[in-house]
Structure formats: C-alpha cells, structure tokens
C-alpha cells in the first residue's frame, strides 16, 4: 500500500524543471469560472496559472516512447490499459515474443514490462517517477484575462461553421512566463530513466491546446544532468 505521507521520504532525487512560455499558453479547464471564455485556462485554488502534472507526464511518456522505438526497443501501446504491459492484448505472437527478454523483467515479478513501463508505470506496475504541477508564481492580479477568438472549421467543405465562434482564455503573450516544478525519482528507478527523460525534454517544444495556432510554444530550463556512459549504453542494448 502506498502511504502518501511517506512519498517525499522515499524520494531519492528530485529534478527542478522550468517551462518558459515563448508565446501564450492555453491549457483549458472545465466550466466557465466566471469568465466569458468558452474554454478558460486552468488555475490553482489561489488563481495561479499551472500546467497539470498529468499533461506533462503524458506528453513526456509519449516522447520517450518515440525515442525508444527509434532505438529499436519494443514498447507497448499506451494509454489503453489492454494494450499496455503486462497484458498487451491483440499483440501478434511474434511481436509478443520480442518482449520476453531479461531486461524487461523486474525483481519479484515474472511478467515482462517494457522499458517505458518500468519508468512511467502501467496498471500492474507503479511509476518510478512523481511529477509536480508546473506552477507560475506570478501573482494572479498581474496577469490580465486574455481572450482569443476562434471559429470551428468544416474540414470537408473547407469553410467556417455557422454560429461556431468561440473564445479561448490564454496567458498573456510574449512575456516569458515561467512554470516551475519537480520530477521526483523514486527508489529503484531504471538507470536509463535520466538519459531518456533528458532526450525527451528536448523533443517537447509546445504544450497545451492550439499549438498549430502558435500557442504553448516553450523552452526548458533545468540543471545539467550528470549521466554516466553506462546509463546511455543501457538504452542501446
């Protein structure tokens, strides 16, 4: 059983990370929250802007999966639990056999978990990482409401739909807002976790919605990671 009060005590390492927004951010929340926007931006209880940890983790996992496949490592298909390790339903028998390798097993578990699941977890295996929400510490009163209009496009007819104007709430544009948090590495995380995360972060150039419209573009600030050659080599085997 996971004891929430012990999570911080069990964490062996924490990586401080900051997303610097180069354009404007649009991470939508449910409800209207007293704004004219059809899609208001998500905030903390105290009104601060944030990037949810779930969105950050999901995007990071997706990039890690792409890198692992590029290195010819067999990876399950998330986020559907049925096609993730250890179940991997509907995988052809010849592909399933490719998961049966010693480095896809962990101590005390005879099932096979791909290298991505060993980092981020799956329905049968806890994640070895914990993610904070990335929070902007700028005071809410210093960030005026910004509404960006949009219209629904009928892609078949290549025209805008009638009466489909909507408003998106975004952060103020081009002021280099910083969203900070931590990635926590729990005990027994795989040695290749750091180099894989390091590479994946360099593949994430935008978060949130309307990226094709120029929203959510960013760059990262984080300390230099000390990664030995053995950790890099573990990804290539």
TrEMBL record:
Gene Ontology terms describing biological process: defense response to virus
Keywords for the protein's UniProt record, in alphabetical order: Antiviral defense
InterPro entries membership: CRISPR_Csm3_endoribonuclease, RAMP_III_fam
Family annotation (Pfam families): RAMPs (PF03787)
Domain CRISPR type III-associated protein: 23-218
Keyword Translocase among record annotations: no
Full protein name: CRISPR-associated protein Csm3
């Amino acid at each position: 059983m996971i004891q929430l009060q012990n999570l911080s005590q069990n964490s062996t390492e924490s990586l401080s990370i900051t997303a610097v927004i180069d354009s404007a951010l649009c991470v939508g929340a449910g409800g209207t929250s007293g704004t004219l926007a059809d899609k208001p931006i998500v905030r903390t209880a105290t009104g601060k802007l944030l990037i949810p940890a779930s969105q950050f983790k999901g995007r990071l996992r997706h990039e890690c999966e792409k890198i692992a496949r590029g290195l010819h490592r067999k990876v399950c298909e998330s986020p559907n639990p049925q096609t993730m390790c250890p179940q991997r339903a509907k995988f052809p028998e010849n592909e399933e056999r490719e998961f049966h390798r010693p480095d896809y097993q962990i101590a005390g578990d005879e099932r096979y978990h791909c290298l991505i699941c060993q980092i981020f977890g799956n329905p049968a295996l806890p994640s070895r990482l914990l993610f904070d929400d990335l929070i902007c510490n700028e005071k809410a009163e210093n960030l005026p409401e910004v509404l960006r209009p949009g219209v629904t496009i009928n892609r078949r007819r290549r025209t805008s739909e009638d009466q489909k104007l909507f408003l998106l709430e975004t952060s103020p544009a081009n002021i280099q807002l910083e969203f900070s948090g931590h990635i926590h590495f729990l005990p027994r995380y795989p040695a290749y976790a750091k180099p894989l995360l390091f590479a994946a972060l360099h593949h994430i150039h935008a978060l949130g919605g309307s990226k094709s419209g120029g929203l959510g573009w960013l760059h990262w600030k984080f300390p230099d990671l000390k990664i030995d050659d053995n950790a890099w080599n573990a990804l290539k085997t």
